[in-house]
Amino acid sequence: MVKSEPSPLYTILSERRKRWTITIASLVTFLSPVSANMYYPAINQLARDLHVPPSRINLTITVFMIVQGIGPFLIGGLSDVYGRRPIVMASLLIYMGVNIGLAQQTSYPALMALRCLQSFGSSTASIVCSSVTADLIPRAERGRYMVYSSLGVTLGPAIGPIVGGILTQFLSWRSTFWFLAIFAGIMTTLVLVFLPETCRVMVGNGSVSPPWWNVPLVQYLHRKAEDHESMRSQIQNEEKSPPPKRPTPLDSIRVAMEKETAAIIAFTTLLFCGYTSVLSTLPSQLEHKYRFNALQVGLCYISYGAGSLTSRWTIGRLIDWNFRRHARKQGIEVIKNRQVDLTLVPVEKARLQITFPVIYCVSVAIIGYGWLMNYQVNLAGPLIMLFLVSHLISGATSTLITLVVDCHVRRPATASAANNMFRCMFGAGAVAGAIPLINLIGIGWTGTMIAFIWVLCSPTLWYVYFWGHSFRKGKEEYMI
C-alpha cells in the first residue's frame, strides 16, 4: 500500500464535540418530518372546527410538501457561502412564530397560508443542518455517524403521529402547534448557545474563527488563552476552500442536471414517492381494515421508526466498510479524521454495491406488506413487513444521499436542496394519488406496482455504477 503525505485534519473538533454538534443539527432536522406527520391525526378535528370538508384540509398537506421542496431550493445554497448558523437561526425564528399563529388561527385561508410558511421554515432549517455532517465527517467515516446525523429524520415520522394522536385525542389540534412552537424555541436556544459554525468556506476545519456575531454563546463563556494558541498552531495545516461565487437558486438546478447527480436524484425520488405512498395511506388502511382510532394508528408507526433507526447500525456500518475496502484496492490508506481523495476512489461503486441488494430486498418487502394488508391478516404481519420496508428504504435512501454529497463536498447544502426539491415535488403528487389508486386496484397491487417500478428503473443506478466515476473524473479534470 502506497502511503502519501497525510492530508490535514478534517476537523479539529474532538470526537465528543463532533457527536454533540451533529446531534443538535440532527434534532433540527426533526422539525420538517414531525410537522408533516403530527398533522395527520388532527385532520378530522380541523375540518369540523373550520367548517370545511376533509378534502380541503388534505390540500394543505399537498401544499406543505410543495413548499418543502421549493424553500431549500431558494435558500439552501446561501448556507454554503454565508454559514449554517445564520440561516438556521432565521428559519427557526420564522418557524416558531408561524406555529404560534397556527395554534391561534380560526379560518381555512389562514391555515393554508401559515402551513406554507411552516413548511418553508422547517424544511430550510432541516436541509442546512443536514449539511453539518458533511462539514465535520470525512467520506470514509460517514456511515457510522448515520445514527447521529439521521436521528431527527428517523424520529420525526415515527414520533409525529404518536404525539399528534395523543395531543389531538386528549387536548385539541391546537396543542400540536403549541408543542411544535415550544420545541422550536428549545432548538433555537440550543443552536444559539452550543452549535458552532461548521461551513468549511468560513471556518475550514474549525481552526478559523467565524465573525463575532456567528459564534455560539458557550465559546464566550469557556474560551481560554490556550484555545487561541491551539487555533494558531492548527491554522497552518488547514485545507482552505476556494472563495465561493455568490449563490443563486439556479445552483441547485445546475447540480441536479449533472449526468451522475441527475440519475441518483431521479432514483431517490422514485424511492421516496413509493415509500411516502405507503406511509401516508397507513392511517386510512388501519382505520378501514382494523377499525383503529387516531392513537392506535399513531402507535403502529413505532414499527416504522424502529426499522429506520436500526438501519443506521447495519447498513451504515456496511457503507464505511465497503469504502475502506475500495480505498485499499487503490493503495490508499484511510486515516481517521482525514479526507480521502475521491479522484482515485470509485465512490460510486463503494456506495452502490451496498445499495443494490437493499433495493431489490425492499421491493420484495413492500410487495409482502401490500398483500398482507390486503388480506387483513393478523396485525403483526403488516407491521413486521413495515419494519423491514422502513429498515431497508432508510438505508438505501441514506446511501444515495451520501453519494450525492460525496460528489459535491464543497456545496453539500446546495446538493441536498436539489435532491430535496425533486423528492418533495413528486412526493406531493404521489401522496395525492395514493388513496385513489388504492381504491381502484387495492393495496396489494399498489405495493406490487411500486416494487415493479423500482426494479424496472434500477438500471439508472447501474448507469452510475459503471460510468459515474469516469464522468466525475472528467469533470474534475476539466475544472482543474
Topology:
Layout: H1 15-29, H2 31-37, H3 43-50, H4 54-75, H5 79-82, H6 84-104, H7 108-130, H8 132-136, H9 146-149, H10 151-170, H11 173-193, H12 200-203, H13 217-222, H14 225-235, H15 250-257, H16 259-290, H17 294-329, H18 347-374, H19 380-406, H20 412-457, H21 459-479
Helix pairs in contact: 1-7, 1-10, 1-11, 2-7, 2-10, 3-4, 4-7, 4-20, 6-7, 6-11, 7-20, 10-11, 10-17, 15-20, 16-19, 16-20, 16-21, 17-18, 17-19, 18-19, 18-20, 18-21, 19-20
Summary keywords:
single chain, 480 residues, mainly alpha, Growth Hormone, Chain: A
Walk me through the structure.
- It contains 21 helices and no strands.
- It has 480 residues and is mainly α.
- It has one domain: MFS general substrate transporter like domains (Growth Hormone, Chain: A).
- Helix 4 crosses helix 20, helix 15 runs parallel beside helix 20 and helix 16 crosses helix 20.
- About 4% of the residues have low confidence.
Round the mean pLDDT to the nearest integer and report it.
79
* Helix share bin: over 70%
The CATH topology name reads Growth Hormone, Chain: A
Envelope shape: globular
How many domains would you count in the coordinates?
A: 1
Structural class: mainly alpha
Largest sheet: none
Distance between the termini: 27 Å
CATH class: Mainly Alpha
Supply Rg: 22 Å
Tally the beta strands: 0
CATH superfamily: MFS general substrate transporter like domains
Succession of helices and strands: HHHHHHHHHHHHHHHHHHHHH
Q: Would you kindly provide a brief summary of this structure?
A:
This protein is mainly alpha-helical. 77% of the residues lie in helices and 0% in strands.
